[in-house]
Structure prediction request, 106 residues.
Amino acid sequence: MSETRQPVPPGGVSSIQGRRQGPALQVAAGLALVAATVGLALPGAVGEALTVTSVAVVSATPLLRVTWLIYRWSEERDWRFVVLGVALLGVVGLGALLALAGVGGD
Prediction:
């Protein structure tokens, strides 16, 4: 069982540290670099798929980080940041839906 985290008092500092995030971000960056490098070297559909994969990894990494932070902030009961994180993901999601719908394009 995990310990119950106490709310961050007003003016206090969060105890969230990047012990898991740092290595995960390094793996994501390495994966994106390898996929982009190999994708540029390979011709055809395989190279294009790897290049698209690298762009997807680079795009998804910050969103996954915000998702992880929302989880951690909710553990600390820091609802201000939970709301801000959810709002940020909502704006990004709305933008993605509008882009898929072709809103704003020529």
Remarks:
- The radius of gyration is 18 Å.
- The CA atoms of residues 18 and 92 lie 23 Å apart.
- The chain has a mean pLDDT of 86.
- Residues 21-101 form one domain.
